[in-house]
Fold this protein.
Amino acid sequence: MPERAALAGAAVMTLALLWASVVPGAGVVFAYGGMHYVAHFAAFTVLAFAWRYALPKAPAWAVLAAVVAFGFAHEAIEIAGHAHGFELADALVDAAGALAGVALAGLARARSAWERR
């Protein structure tokens, strides 16, 4: 059951991030007060955690690669959606968040397996 909830959350979060990449005003919410990179990191940490937790049989590297690729695609879509150039720093922060999310999901699964012993 937790995998289904994680899968639903991952799908919703993916769609929300796609929406945010095409709606020009979406980035303004976290543009002030130094929260821009925190928002990117947190969003991609949660996204990667959800996908990794939802797909326990998929290799961690594959989930990481897919979420990092999605982060770069998200930034590329923003070129048209937000009418600005490619933001490499945002894509790199997205990738760092993806790495953190995959690692946290691995720790959560390991802890869960340890507690079942």
Q: What stands out?
A: The helical segments are 2-22, 36-54, 60-81, 88-116. The mean pLDDT is 89. Residues 2-116 form one domain.
